[in-house]
């Protein structure tokens, strides 16, 4: 695991400027690679590459980068891990390769030198962001793994080409302007993160998952996909599982065990996150099944019952016999981290579960350098509660086709407080917390006629049409959801369409971004076996009822886990990996967030609607509405603006 950088100034570039700039860019990524770093410069070509190393496989100098191919033609920097490197090494047995070490980096480089970039990346199993310079043709090639587990930003600005694992690398080199990308801002206000293919800056982009970018002379760039979720869906539909349910579950278990076992290869100490939920428990159960010693597991607990999963994780760990460590953190521990988030996430990022993710990463890194996690199970195997909510709302709307808009207006005729008071008058009825607020949030969805539009509205934090003004003379362009057009053209069922869109955007740009930045801030490598591309592809072959059956999600994963852990430890309401954000915004974070929401630059420079934000902050603080997610998104945007735009 590493941080990589690159800069191409063009032919006959200034050698001193080149080296000084690439050094600054690479040093900015020290947290991603504290075990060493180096840069390589070719002044004649005007190109430089840099890398910070977190040594995982082959800790010797033979694994150092930038790495040169044995024939001297190629230079590579690479971030990630490839788990079938030894299989690929064996395929090169007849090529007379003079191996210098046993790193996966060297295997990738020598495969590319012989098979080319495209043929090589299609064979890789793992997570990776790769930059390859071909001295002979003068071509720079950038590659991102299929599901976007590892990040890679690139920019073309002021005649220069640059790339880095994080935006702070580009900023340190002063190779992009600070002009805000209005399309990305639109997307952030809606979803709370900046989607791949964009960045928050107008002159930088995140390379899309499963894509290759080739840059030749004069800065000519060509980007194309070598793998896509859409193709995986089509292939799954064309090769649907023909056996019975049990054979599908058995085949999935074999595939998951292989994915897990491959990710347990490391020359450094290794462990796993364990929340006690289905996904992380399945990963840990399979790890323990192939290990000859107790697996090190880590969980985090809060002194707040609604957000504390540590007890469940402890019970699972005890049953599996892992070497388990728990960290209970106070609200102060979490709150002390909050001001650092805009530094760790150098784009606006709203997901407050980044707080416990940062904390557990810091805890885990004290003992191990690599940790496996259970991320990715919800998208592939139908685990999100919102899939049920969206389907239920859709059914209600369809059953009242001519009255859904009237029903929506009727439900919001009473204020949230009036609804709570009315429900409290029902004899024997125990009140549901903030039910009136929930009614007001769900009611507008009933008036939306299209299922996919309704789902996107369900996920949306703000309506940018209300919150963001158009720039004079520049009509605002709206962000288009990846996968939406595909889902409509393929006539996918409602749940499958939601899974496609979540896999293509939410999983990549929220879940994986959260984990990558949080873990790398502590120099911890996190591996995600449920996001092995082979698992994703197999998931689309499986019958739908083995994913979501009625109100039960992740049916196949549950059946695998039941072999290792008793049902009673698993079949419980999902707590989620979150924090009591609504309470914090009315209490210990009220002043901090209030100051961020009051910053004039938020409105003068980004054009946001101050009155709308002030109204919601007042409603939230009073307790009559819960706008915690919406307000947190604006606070994180404001803190990012303060830190990175000045």
Per-chain topology:
Elements: E1 2-8, H1 15-27, E2 37-42, E3 47-53, E4 67-68, E5 74-82, H2 85-91, H3 104-115, H4 117-121, E6 126-134, E7 139-144, E8 153-157, E9 160-164, H5 167-172, H6 182-191, E10 204-206, E11 211-215, E12 221-225, H7 229-238, H8 245-262, E13 270-273, H9 278-289, E14 296-302, H10 310-320, E15 323-329, H11 331-337, H12 341-344, H13 354-365, E16 370-372, H14 377-381, H15 385-399, H16 404-411, H17 416-424, H18 435-446, H19 451-459, H20 464-467, H21 484-490, H22 494-520, E17 525-527, H23 533-539, E18 548-549, E19 552-553, H24 555-561, H25 567-570, H26 581-586, H27 590-597, H28 600-604, H29 610-622, H30 628-645
Parallel strand pairs: 13-14, 13-16, 14-15, 16-17
Antiparallel strand pairs: 1-3, 1-9, 2-3, 4-5, 5-6, 6-7, 7-11, 8-9, 8-10, 11-12, 18-19
Helix pairs in contact: 2-3, 7-23, 8-23, 8-24, 9-10, 9-24, 13-22, 16-18, 17-18, 27-30
Family: Belongs to the asparagine synthetase family.
Pathway: Amino-acid biosynthesis; L-asparagine biosynthesis; L-asparagine from L-aspartate (L-Gln route): step 1/1
Keywords: ATP-binding, Glutamine amidotransferase, Nucleotide-binding
């Amino acid at each position: 695991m590493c941080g990589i950088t690159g800069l191409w100034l063009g032919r006959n570039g200034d050698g001193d400027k080149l080296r000084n700039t690439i050094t600054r860019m690479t040093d900015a990524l020290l947290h991603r690679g504290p075990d060493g770093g180096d840069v390589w410069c070719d002044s004649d070509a005007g190109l430089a590459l840099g890398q910070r190393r977190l040594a995982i496989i082959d800790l010797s100098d033979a694994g150092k980068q930038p790495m040169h191919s044995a024939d001297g033609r190629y230079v590579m920097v690479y971030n990630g891990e490839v788990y079938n490197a030894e299989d690929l090494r064996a395929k090169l047995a007849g090529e007379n390769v003079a191996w210098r070490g046993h790193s996966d980096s060297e295997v990738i480089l020598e495969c590319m030198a012989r098979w080319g970039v495209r043929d090589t990346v299609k064979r890789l199993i793992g997570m990776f962001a790769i930059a390859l310079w071909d001295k002979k043709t003068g071509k720079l090639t950038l590659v991102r793994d299929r599901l976007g587990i590892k990040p890679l930003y690139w920019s073309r600005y002021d005649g220069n080409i640059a790339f880095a694992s994080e935006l702070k690398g580009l900023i340190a080199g002063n190779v992009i302007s600070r002009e805000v990308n209005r399309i990305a801002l639109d997307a952030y206000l809606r979803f709370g993160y900046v989607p791949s293919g964009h960045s928050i800056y107008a002159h930088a982009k995140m390379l899309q998952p499963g894509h290759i970018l080739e840059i030749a002379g004069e800065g000519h760039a060509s980007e194309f996909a070598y793998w896509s979720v859409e193709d995986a869906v089509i292939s799954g539909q064309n090769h649907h599982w023909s056996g019975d349910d049990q054979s599908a579950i058995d085949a999935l278990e074999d595939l998951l065990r292989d994915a897990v076992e491959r990710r347990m290869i490391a020359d450094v100490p290794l462990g796993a996150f364990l929340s006690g939920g289905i996904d992380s428990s399945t990963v840990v159960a399979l790890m323990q099944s192939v290990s000859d010693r107790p697996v090190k597991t880590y969980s985090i607990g809060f002194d707040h019952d609604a957000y504390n999963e540590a007890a469940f994780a402890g019970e699972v760990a005890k049953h599996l016999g892992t070497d388990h460590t728990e960290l209970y953190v106070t609200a102060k521990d979490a709150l002390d981290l909050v001001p650092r988030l805009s530094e760790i996430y150098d784009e606006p990022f709203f997901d407050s579960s980044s707080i416990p993710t940062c904390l557990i990463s810091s805890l885990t890194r004290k003992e191990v350098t690599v940790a496996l996690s259970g991320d990715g199970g919800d998208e592939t195997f139908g685990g999100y509660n919102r899939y049920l909510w969206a389907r239920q709302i859709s059914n209600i709307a369809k059953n009242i086709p001519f009255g859904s808009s009237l029903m929506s207006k009727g439900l919001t005729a009473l204020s949230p407080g009036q609804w709570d008071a009315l429900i409290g008058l029902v004899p024997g009825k125990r009140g549901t917390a903030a039910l009136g607020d929930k009614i007001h949030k769900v009611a507008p969805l009933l008036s939306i006629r299209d299922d996919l539009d309704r789902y996107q509205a369900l996920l949306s934090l703000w309506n940018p049409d209300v919150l963001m003004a158009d720039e004079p003379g520049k009509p605002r362009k709206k962000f288009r959801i990846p996968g939406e057009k595909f889902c409509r053209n393929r006539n996918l069922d409602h749940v499958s369409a939601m899974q496609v869109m979540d896999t293509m955007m939410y999983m990549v740009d929220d879940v994986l971004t959260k984990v990558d930045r949080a873990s790398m801030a502590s120099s911890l490598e996190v591996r995600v076996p449920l996001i092995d591309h082979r698992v994703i592809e197999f998931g689309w072959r499986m019958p739908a009822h083995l994913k979501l059956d009625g109100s039960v999600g992740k049916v196949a994963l549950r059946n695998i886990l039941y072999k290792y852990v008793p049902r009673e430890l698993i079949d419980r309401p999902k707590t989620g990996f979150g924090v009591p954000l609504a309470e914090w915004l009315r209490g210990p974070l009220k002043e901090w967030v209030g100051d961020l929401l009051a910053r004039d630059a938020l409105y003068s420079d980004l054009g946001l609607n101050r009155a709308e934000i002030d109204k919601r902050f007042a409603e939230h603080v009073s307790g009559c509405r819960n706008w915690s997610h919406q307000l947190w998104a604006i606070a994180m945007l404001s803190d990012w603006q303060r830190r990175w735009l000045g």
